[in-house]
C-alpha cells in the first residue's frame, strides 16, 4: 500500500492555482491513472477551492478580532489611568516644613486632583506618638498650606502615629480600605528608608506614582 505524496505530481496541469493547492493536500494511489487524478481534481476543485477561498477571510477576521480585543484591553487600562477620583498623599518625612520631595508630591497630587476632579486624602505616618512630636502641628499647617497653593482647601486628613516602622503596610491598608485610585509619593521616601520599594506592589492595591528627586 504505497502512496505517493502529491508533491510528486507537481507536473500535473490543474485548472487553477486553487486546485493545485488542493491536490497538494491529498495522497493519491499510484494505481489511479493520470486522467483519473486530473478528473478528480477538476471535479472537486471548484467546491474545495471555494472552501479554501474563505480561509484568508476567516484569518483576517480572527486577526482583526484579536487586535480589537487587545486594543480594548489597552483602552481599559488607559481609562483606569485617566479616571482618578480619590488620591492618597502619604507623608512620611519628619520635616515640619516638609522636605523638597514631599512638597513636590503635594503639588503633583493637587494638580492631578484638580485636573480629574478627584478628592485628596493625606495620611501622616510616623513611628513616634504625637506627644513626642513637638512640631507636629507645624507640619500639619505646612501640609494645608502647600495643598491650598494647589487650589485645595478641603481634604481628608488621617494620622497614623506610633504604629511602628510599617509605613508601606499602612499605606496599602488605607488604599485598600478607602478604595483609592492612586498613591503619589516622592522617591525621597524610598531613599530615606521610610518606605520599602520592594513591598509596594505587595501591599498597595492601586497604581503608585513615585516622583524622582
Structure, described:
The chain has about 210 residues and is α/β, with parallel strands linked by helices. The chain is about 50% helix and about 15% strand. The chain is built from seven helices and seven strands; from the N terminus they run βαβαβαβαβαβααβ. The strands form two sheets. A five-stranded parallel sheet has the order 5-4-3-6-7, sandwiched between helices. The protein has a two-stranded antiparallel sheet with strand order 1-2. Helix 1 crosses helix 2, helix 3 crosses helix 4 and helix 5 packs parallel to helix 7. The longest helix has about 45 residues. The N terminus is likely disordered.
Give keywords.
7 helices; single chain; 50% helix; Universal stress protein; 5-stranded parallel beta sheet; 7 strands; 213 residues; disordered N terminus; two-stranded antiparallel sheet; alpha/beta
> How would you write the strand order of the largest sheet?
5-4-3-6-7
- The average pLDDT value, as a whole number, equals 73
The residue fraction in helices comes out at 40-55%
Oligomer classification: single chain
* Helix and strand element order: EHEHEHEHEHEHHE
Shape label = globular
Query: Regions with pLDDT < 50 over 5+ consecutive residues?
Result: 1-69
Question: What composes the largest sheet?
Answer: 5 strands, parallel
Number of helices: 7
Termini separation: 78 Å
E-strand count: 7
Beta percentage is 15-25%
Class of secondary structure makeup: alpha/beta
Query: What's the gyration radius in Å?
Result: 34 Å
Organism: Deinandra increscens subsp. villosa
Protein name: Universal stress protein
Amino acid at each position: 500500500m504505497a502512496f505517493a505524496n502529491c508533491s510528486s505530481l507537481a507536473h500535473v496541469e490543474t485548472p487553477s492555482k486553487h486546485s493545485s493547492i488542493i491536490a497538494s493536500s491529498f495522497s493519491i494511489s499510484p494505481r489511479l491513472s493520470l486522467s483519473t487524478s486530473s478528473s478528480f481534481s477538476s471535479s472537486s476543485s471548484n467546491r474545495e477551492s471555494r472552501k479554501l477561498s474563505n480561509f484568508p477571510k476567516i484569518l483576517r477576521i480572527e486577526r482583526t478580532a484579536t487586535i480589537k480585543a487587545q486594543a480594548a484591553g489597552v483602552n481599559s487600562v488607559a481609562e483606569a489611568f485617566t479616571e482618578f477620583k480619590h488620591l492618597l498623599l502619604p507623608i512620611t518625612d519628619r520635616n515640619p516644613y516638609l522636605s523638597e520631595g514631599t512638597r513636590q508630591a503635594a503639588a503633583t497630587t493637587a494638580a492631578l486632583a484638580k485636573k480629574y476632579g478627584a478628592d485628596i486624602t493625606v495620611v501622616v505616618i510616623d513611628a513616634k506618638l504625637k506627644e513626642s512630636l513637638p512640631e507636629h502641628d507645624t507640619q500639619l499647617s505646612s501640609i494645608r498650606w502647600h495643598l491650598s497653593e494647589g487650589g485645595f482647601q478641603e481634604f481628608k486628613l488621617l494620622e497614623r502615629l506610633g504604629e511602628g516602622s510599617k509605613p508601606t503596610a499602612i499605606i496599602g491598608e488605607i488604599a485598600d480600605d478607602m478604595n483609592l485610585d492612586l498613591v503619589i509619593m516622592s522617591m525621597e521616601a524610598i531613599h530615606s528608608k521610610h518606605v520599602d520599594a520592594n513591598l509596594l506592589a505587595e501591599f498597595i492595591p492601586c497604581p503608585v506614582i513615585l516622583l524622582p528627586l
